[in-house]
Specification:
Layout (H helix, E strand, L loop, with lengths): L5 H12 L10 E7 L2 E9 L4 E3 L1 H10 L12 H22 L2 H31 L20 E5 L2 E7 L1 H23 L2
Antiparallel strand pairs: 1-2, 1-5, 2-3, 4-5
Helix pairs in contact: 1-3, 1-5, 3-4, 4-5
Length: 190
């Protein structure tokens, strides 16, 4: 089996190194809109912190019995920087070793990591939106307030929109580059 071509190595190296940017940009964002907040509210999720109008969102969520969002409730913030470092090193190693087997293993690790991250985010949202205080000021029988995993969802009079932010899109880009390299290598490097 032929080693990876130089262009494939370069793409993998640049894609992997681009993850360094995730240390300085948010990974995910949740935006909320309602008639009383026409300018919208936003919360960004970074590798190690939250930003945006978290306290305003907490104040509103208190009325429907949701837990107070705070960084301490996310143990992931302690390990996420190391996981990103792992993917940077693994991507560079894949480029350096020039092996198709390692390339497929790298893609598999990206897919598994992505699925694990999305499941973790979904399970947090489920717990956050379903485990409501019985002392809430506003109670709607049978209503849960789980934010959307991806996309749009209506929650009472709020519209909630959840999408990757710049850092999240860099992971998507690395996955696309890796798949593109696999197709390129399969077609042009037999």
């Amino acid at each position: 089996m032929k080693p990876l071509k130089k262009i494939s190595q370069a793409l993998l190296a640049v894609g992997s190194l681009s993850l360094i940017i995730t240390y300085f940009t948010p990974l995910w964002r949740i935006d909320l809109w309602a008639p009383q907040y026409p300018e919208g509210l936003s919360m960004q999720i970074w590798l190690t912190k939250l930003s945006g109008q978290v306290e305003i969102i907490n104040g509103l969520n208190h009325y429907i019995g949701m837990a107070h969002i705070k960084e301490e409730m996310f143990p992931e913030f302690k390990v996420l920087p190391y996981f990103v470092g792992f993917y940077i090193v693994l991507g560079l190693l894949t480029a350096f070793l020039k092996s198709r087997k390692v390339l497929f293993a790298f893609l598999g690790s990206l897919i598994i990591g992505g699925i694990a991250a999305m499941y973790d985010f979904w399970s947090w949202g489920y717990e956050y939106g379903h485990n409501l205080s019985p002392d809430a000021a506003i109670k709607v029988p049978g209503m849960s307030y789980q934010p959307p995993l991806i996309g749009y969802k209506e929650l009472l009079n709020f519209g909630a929109y959840s999408i990757p932010a710049a850092g999240g899109w860099l992971f998507v880009l690395l996955g696309v580059i890796t798949i593109g390299v696999i197709f390129y290598e399969s077609k042009y490097n037999k």
